[in-house]
Specification:
heterodimer; A: 114 residues; alpha+beta; three-stranded antiparallel sheet; 5 helices; 3 strands; elongated; B: two-stranded antiparallel ribbon; 11 helices; 2 strands
């Protein structure tokens, strides 16, 4: 039965990855490390969605990137740009508005049934 | 062996990317895959299996590349699909019909046999359908990939008007008046003559058609009038009316084609005086006859299809209450 819920749950989660990534990348990070961090924070992400997403955000100017060649394995580090921080604040505001709305909704239903 | 899996994967993913992205994505992917593999090995997995698992997780490299390059993974997406569908439907009616009619007409004019005409027409219609579908789709695939605007945005003004009922009083009166005029013209032609040549009146239609062929034509006209009245009374198209309409159209076209084929439709005197006397060749007359036959058939076919389409719309828009 829960398989039928999956598309709806995915739909709901979709936008949250951008929010979480912008938040986490305020301290610079690289692809695999970010994937680990996201999972640790409870955001289930597929590698093949996250990596192209980082590129897209970079192209849109919300992330800046830099190659770190200091270590044995050169890695591309991403960092949230000032525009990215702006976007992040907007997303967070929207999210908390939604949370309030959902809480209110639940209260109405509980009030109605009890 | 293990190194080549990653190398092969990266090569497959990078090859379809734009030139300027290739080196960057290649290096990044290499690091990402190595990191993830190391992560799995640290968790106690065998190296070969870890690499396989990481690459499997990343999925089809072509899909990953499309995602990197922001390329659509469909032929025609939601932005253009409806425009494509509407245009294709319209063109699939117009182009094969025009091409088929054109070829049939041309073949008839050159005096081809009926088998050749039918064969050629079907071949041309099929090839017109294939070409139309293919080229229209190609154009939209290009639009989809260049992101061009089609210039068609929907607005409330585009909403279709509700179909005017088939039973409008104006329609009935127009039909009856037209049929009356046609009957009057036939009588006028017989007793006075429609053509007026050098001070003399001539019949256009063959006077030998009287009385029986003409009686049949008048019966058809009367039947058409009854049909118009029945349609008005009924208020909408029904299965019976559509069948009746088809039969009337078939009978009418049979009447015209039979007489044209026998060369009995026009008055011989009229043809002598108007065409042959002014130097028109018999060949040209035959061509005029073929064109006339096509016009008559075209009108009949259109009238028949129109009836069925209207029936379909009535069926679609309201519950049938027979």
């Amino acid at each position: 039965m829960s398989e039928n819920y999956d598309p709806h749950l995915q739909e709901l989660r979709r936008g949250t990855i951008v929010l979480a990534a912008l938040q986490l990348l305020q301290t610079p990070g690289y692809g695999y490390g970010l994937l680990q961090d996201l999972e640790q924070q409870g955001f289930q992400t597929d590698a093949n969605t996250l990596y192209p997403l980082l590129r897209r955000l970079e192209k849109q100017g919300y992330l800046v990137s830099e190659w770190n060649t200091g270590e044995a394995r050169p890695r591309k580090f991403y960092c949230t740009s000032p525009e990215g921080v702006d976007l992040l604040q907007n997303l967070v505001t929207e999210w908390s508005n939604l949370t309030t709305s959902i809480t209110n909704l639940t209260h109405i239903i509980e009030g109605g049934t009890s | 062996m293990n190194a080549t899996l990653t190398t092969r994967y990266i090569a497959a993913a990078v090859t379809s990317l734009p030139q300027h992205m290739q080196a960057d994505v290649e290096q990044e992917l290499r690091a990402l895959i190595a990191d993830a593999t190391d992560g799995r090995i640290d968790a106690g997995e065998d190296q070969g299996l870890a690499e396989r698992a990481v690459l499997t997780e990343l999925g089809d490299p072509a899909i990953l590349a499309a995602s990197y390059a922001d390329r659509p993974l469909h032929l025609v997406g939601p932005k253009y699909y409806l425009t494509w569908l509407r245009l294709l439907k319209l063109l699939l009616i117009i182009i094969p019909l025009c091409a088929g009619l054109g070829v049939a007409l041309a073949q008839s004019l050159t005096g081809a046999g009926i088998g050749v005409i039918i064969g050629e027409t079907i071949a041309v219609i099929i090839s017109a359908i294939v070409h139309t579908a293919f080229w229209v789709t190609v154009v939209f695939v290009i639009l989809e990939r260049t992101g061009a605007e089609t210039g068609t945005t929907w607005s409330v003004d585009d909403l279709p008007e509700p179909e005017t009922p088939a039973s409008s009083r104006v329609g009935l009166i127009a039909s009856l008046v037209l049929l009356g005029v046609a009957a009057g013209a036939l009588l006028w032609d017989r007793f006075i003559g429609l053509a007026w040549i050098t001070g003399e009146r001539l019949s256009v239609l063959n006077p030998d058609l009287w009385p029986w062929w003409m009686a049949a034509l008048f019966a058809l006209i009367a039947a058409e009038a009854l049909f118009a009245i029945a349609l008005f009374v009924r208020g909408r198209w029904t299965m019976r009316l559509a069948v009746g309409n088809t039969m009337l159209a078939t009978l009418f076209v049979s009447w015209v084609l039979t007489l044209l084929g026998r060369g009995q439709l026009m008055s011989p005197e009229f043809i002598d005086r108007v065409f042959l006397a002014s130097g028109v060749e018999a060949d040209t007359l035959r061509i005029l006859g073929v064109v006339l036959a096509f016009v008559a058939s075209g009108i009949a076919v259109w009238d028949t299809i129109d009836g069925w389409v209207r029936l379909g719309k009535t069926r679609g828009s309201e519950p049938v209450s027979e």
